[in-house]
Amino acid sequence: MHKRAPRRWLPAGLIALRERNFVLYVVGQFTSQLGSWIELTAVSWIVYEMTNSPFLLGLVGLFRATPTILLALFGGAIADRLPRRLLLMCTESTMLVLSLTLGILSVK
Q1: DSSP label at 108?
Q2: d(C-alpha 86, C-alpha 33), whole Å
Q3: pLDDT at residue 108 greater than cutoff 60
Q4: If pLDDT is split at 50, 70 and 90, which confidence band does 8 have?
């Protein structure tokens, strides 16, 4: 069996980046979070442009955060019982479909 040479260019704190699956996870999470931030910015911009109301803009943030706050414990219990890969694939795919739907509906 052939052993590959260790990569010495990584600092000790980044040693996890030697694992291919971890790198794929980090890149996927970065991409997902970037998309979520862009979506939040776009939705906020559209709401403010349509209403000129700081109050309604604040409600968008409240309505976006409320499900996370209310369902966090329930979601954590589910996450502990399901395979993580399957759970990530389902949640990320659902977020993609919802974001695409929102994007298509917001095109003038």
Answers
A1: -
A2: 19
A3: yes
A4: low
CB 34 within 8 Å of CB 99: no
The answer to whether 72 touches 8, Cβ cutoff 8 Å, is: no
Integer CA distances (angstroms), 66 to 62, 69, 81, in order: 6, 5, 24
Residue 31 three-state SS: helix
Give the span between the Cα atoms of 4 and 97, in whole angstroms: 40
pLDDT at 84 over 70: yes
Place of tokens 């977020």: 95
Concatenating the DSSP letter of every residue in 56-106 gives HHHHHHHHHHHHHHHHHHHHHHHHHHS-HHHHHHHHHHHHHHHHHHHHHHH
Q: Give dist(CA 76, CA 85) in Å, integer.
A: 15
